[in-house]
């Protein structure tokens, strides 16, 4: 998840057979899908907001965070220094790093009004697009 998806997505990269999908957990549109294992601390607890039109099957190595906040705002928060500083206290494991759902529940998220959350997410989306263009330009320039 952490190497393919960005802050939010409306499509999936892979699919599973319908009989297996019927047995596993599903994220609804607006949910955050959070990676709970990684080999590096930076990718641990990477979150992607699911903004597709229907429910999506989720791996056992991920948590589904249901909330009433702007999904993109929450996903950006999971990348913030404030989140990372709180997360580091809850990481376990040596080679494979883990964070529990209980530990994620202890992380405090600042909650401005919904309109402010949406504006923050809109601005951060623009910065993300600009950074992607800058990297693309640098790649083709070299």
What report would you give on this structure?
The protein has helices at about 20, 70-75, 80-85, 100-105, 115-140; strands at about 10, 25, 30-35, 35-40, 45-50, 55, 60-65, 95-100. The protein has one domain (about 10-110): Adenine-n6-DNA-methyltransferase TaqI, Chain A, domain 2, CATH 3.90.220. The chain contains five helices and eight strands. Helices cover about 35% and strands about 15% of the residues. The protein has about 140 residues and is of the alpha+beta class. The two termini are about 30 Å apart. It comes from Leifsonia xyli subsp. cynodontis DSM 46306.
Terminal CA distance? 29 Å
Which class in CATH terms? Alpha Beta
> Helicity, in percent?
25-40%
Strand content: 15-25%
Lateral strand order in the biggest sheet: 1-5-3-7
- What would the principal axes of the Cα set say about the shape? globular
Tell me, rounded to a whole number, the average pLDDT. 90
Number of strands: 8
Low-confidence parts: none
- Judged by helices, strands and strand pairing, the structural class is alpha+beta
CATH second-level architecture: Alpha-Beta Complex
Largest sheet: 4 strands, mixed
Subunit structure: The methyltransferase is composed of M and S polypeptides.
Keywords: DNA-binding, Restriction system
GO molecular function: DNA binding
Domain Type I restriction modification DNA specificity: 72-134
């Amino acid at each position: 998840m952490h190497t393919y998806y960005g802050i939010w997505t409306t499509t999936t990269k892979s699919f599973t057979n319908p009989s297996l999908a019927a047995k596993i957990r599903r994220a609804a549109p607006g949910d955050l899908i959070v990676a709970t294992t990684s080999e590096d601390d930076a990718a641990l607890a990477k979150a992607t907001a699911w903004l597709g039109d229907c429910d999506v099957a989720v791996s056992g190595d991920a948590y589904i965070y249901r909330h009433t906040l702007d999904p993109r705002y929450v996903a950006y928060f999971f990348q913030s220094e404030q989140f990372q500083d709180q997360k580091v206290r809850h990481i376990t494991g040596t080679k494979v790093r883990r964070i529990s759902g209980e530990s994620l529940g202890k992380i405090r998220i600042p909650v401005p009004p919904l309109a402010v959350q949406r504006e923050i997410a809109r601005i951060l989306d623009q910065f993300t697009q600009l950074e992607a263009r800058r990297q693309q330009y640098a790649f083709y320039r070299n």
